[in-house]
């Protein structure tokens, strides 16, 4: 395959919630060669873990070609460990019984199956420029006016 058909993508993600639950948002920085894309969205009522996971899901859903080799850098142990330690794959066997954010985990599993995805945990607020940028995007998104409902969160409770 050529590089065009199987690109390497680096995705930095972060989530934020002002109150947990409270208004929240996610931020994503996607890098591939000379290309850079930033994404963010806020929600009226959500949790930090949902926004951390939503950032990874949206980043992967944004990819229009594939399969891609994707490395996702996150400061969320919840997201990184759930995938890298294989917990999410066990949750599938129990249909996510007793697990929160099953709507987002199902989206993640569907979209990640199209790519070769690896998570790397990074320490938050440790002067990693792209992680800091994701934090800025996530926090700013949580302050936007007329935030939509996080439907998955609403139905989880």
What topology emerges from the helices and strands here?
Layout: E1 8-17, E2 22-32, E3 35-46, H1 48-62, E4 69-74, H2 77-84, H3 87-93, H4 102-112, E5 116-121, H5 129-142, H6 151-156
Parallel strand pairs: 1-4, 4-5
Antiparallel strand pairs: 1-2, 2-3
Describe the structure.
- With about 160 residues, the chain is of the alpha/beta class.
- The chain has a single domain, classed as Nucleotidyltransferase, domain 5.
- Helix content is about 40%, strand content about 30%.
- It has a five-stranded mixed beta sheet with strand order 3-2-1-4-5.
- Strand 1 and strand 2 form a beta hairpin.
- Helix 1 packs parallel to helix 4 (about 100-110).
- About 40% of the residues are buried.
What's the gist of this structure?
This protein has 157 residues and is α/β, with parallel strands linked by helices. The protein has helices at 48-62, 77-84, 87-93, 102-112, 129-142, 151-156; strands at residues 8-17, 22-32, 35-46, 69-74, 116-121. The protein has one domain (8-156): Nucleotidyltransferase, domain 5 (2-Layer Sandwich), CATH 3.30.420.
List keywords for this structure.
6 helices; five-stranded mixed sheet; Nucleotidyltransferase, domain 5; globular; alpha/beta; 157 residues
Please state roughly what percent of the residues sit in beta strands, choosing from under 5%, 5-15%, 15-25%, 25-35%, 35-45% or over 45%. 25-35%
Question: Which structural class do the helices and strands define?
Answer: alpha/beta
Low-confidence stretches: none
How many beta-strand runs?
5
Counted up, domains total: 1
Whole-number mean pLDDT:
93
The spatial strand order of the largest sheet comes to 3-2-1-4-5
**Helix and strand pattern:** EEEHEHHHEHH
Treating each run of at least 4 consecutive H or I residues as one helix, how many helices?
Answer: 6
What would you call the shape? globular
Roughly how much helix do the residues carry, as a percent range? 25-40%
Largest sheet: 5 strands, mixed
CATH level 4 superfamily: Ribonuclease H-like superfamily/Ribonuclease H
Q: What is the terminal-to-terminal distance? A: 46 Å
């Amino acid at each position: 395959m050529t590089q065009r058909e199987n690109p390497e993508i680096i995705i930095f993600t972060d989530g934020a919630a002002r109150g947990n639950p409270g208004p929240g948002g996610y931020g994503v920085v996607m890098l591939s060669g000379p290309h850079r894309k930033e994404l963010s969205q806020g929600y009226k009522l959500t949790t930090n873990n949902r926004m951390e996971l939503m950032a990874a899901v949206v980043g992967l859903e944004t990819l229009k070609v594939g399969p891609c080799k994707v490395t996702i850098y996150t400061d969320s142990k919840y997201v990184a460990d759930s995938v890298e330690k294989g917990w999410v794959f066990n949750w599938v066997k129990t249909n996510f019984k007793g697990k929160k954010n099953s709507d987002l985990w199902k989206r993640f599993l569907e979209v990640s199956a199209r790519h070769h995805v690896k998570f790397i945990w990074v320490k938050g607020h440790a002067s990693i420029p792209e992680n800091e940028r994701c934090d800025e995007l996530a926090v700013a998104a949580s302050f936007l006016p007329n935030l939509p409902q996080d439907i998955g969160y609403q139905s989880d409770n």
